[in-house]
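Objective 1b. Sequence-to-structure analysis of Lipolytic protein.
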Amino acid sequence: MPTLLTFGDSNTHGSLPIAKRGERRRLGPRKRWPGVAARRLEWELIEAGLPGRTAQFPDPVMGAYMDGREGLNIALRSHGPIDVMTLMLGTNDQKTRFGADASMITAGIAALLDMALGDELQDRHEGFKVLLISPPAVREVGLLAGEFLGAAKKSAALPGLYAELADKRGAEFMDAGAVIETSDIDGIHFGAEAHAALGNAVAEKLGTMLT
């Protein structure tokens, strides 16, 4: 049975849209998109979604451990062997406080791909494939709009940049924004129906990667 590692942020964790400060709601394991995908494929699942995680930035508000470079290294050394890893990050890198444009965000993703596809970790797992997923576009609405000023424009550029990067690095690519949209409650997260749709789309894509 193949093993899938899903590495990402709150949208991999299953966090639901936030309507008020301090709200922390999470979908159950069978309704989160990683669980939907793994069940459909009948694969073993390792979930590694951390709310607030970035591709490359220690967060001065949420903590240095939000830097995905540290988290990915730990995840790939803690689990395995794995056969496929999904990587969906970049939403939190669009926060205004980081001052990152779309190219800089993509550069952070490149560092994570270089780590995952490098000889050391590939040898550790006896080889595994990576599916890079561009997250659905941020909408500057609701409670979190002030944290993501300018993110809508950045989001629009990410799928093309991620697709080019995946091609250059030898990873597979999928645009989550072609399947789902973020909620109009907070413009960042998405609900159960979107998780189901994304999980099924990811499963279909992953099913072609090990054939």
